[in-house]
Amino acid sequence: MHRGTRGNPLGRALNKAMASPMGGALLEELGRHSRESYVHSLQVARIALTLNRELGLNLGQRRIAEAGVYHDVGKMIVPRFILHKEGRPTGEEFDVIKFHPEAGRDLLAQSGSWMRFPKTTLAAAYLHHAPRYPAGTAEQLNAGTTEAKVSKLMTIADIIGAMRQKRSYKDPAPWNVVIDTLRSGIERGEIDPVLGNRTLRLLRGYDLRDSIDRDMARMERYADRQGVQEAPATRDRRAGFEWFVPPINSIAKEVITNWRNRFYRTMQRSRALVRARRSRILEQLRNTR
Hints:
Oligomer: single chain
CATH superfamily: Hypothetical protein af1432
CATH class: Mainly Alpha
Strand order of the largest sheet: 1-2
Number of strands: 2
Distance between the termini: 71 Å
């Protein structure tokens, strides 16, 4: 039983997850791979719960909590040096990051023999970055289903959580910058305009901002109490460069390993394309001399 969580929906979702061999293994591996991603997942769940209540969405606190806890589980296939990188990722690195929604959905779906995750949880993992990526998800977001509604809410909670979280390479973004980012996301069609504008109206007051900040700090302390820390890493030289991953010692090993192997193949194809493009440019330069 997770300490200090029994009386709230997020705590009950966590306790249910940890009671399942696969659910607990996935969360444990996420924390061992990236403590910041683990804390972020809890914070997003807490923010989504608050927005669900304040906006009167009635999507179900238990459903929202579980979707938030697992929404970023796909991050465990993204190398640490990319997750913790200071500054913008390169195009190649961003291609890797764009894998994590699909990886998260598949990790949860392939875990079905151990724990059958709700459709809303799978949808939140896959769609919380849509329509930016993965491709072809706009129709699913516009379907009007509970899965779509939860995913749209998770998109907003994810942006707020990522920007307000203090990480090893950045301080929390000021609230005015968070609000401007949400507004820009609405204008670009990346955030549901109805949910987004209602959230912006709530964030005009300081009460909700302070509540979110307190909840995020509470989740950070919660991770400390649970002793969540990144595992010692091993060096892997596949894909033509060095990256670091923690050794996997859990029931989730096969599912995670399959996805990491897919990552290697993608990186190899990407590097081959870059080399071919570079060769064409050099050939063009030689021909113009």
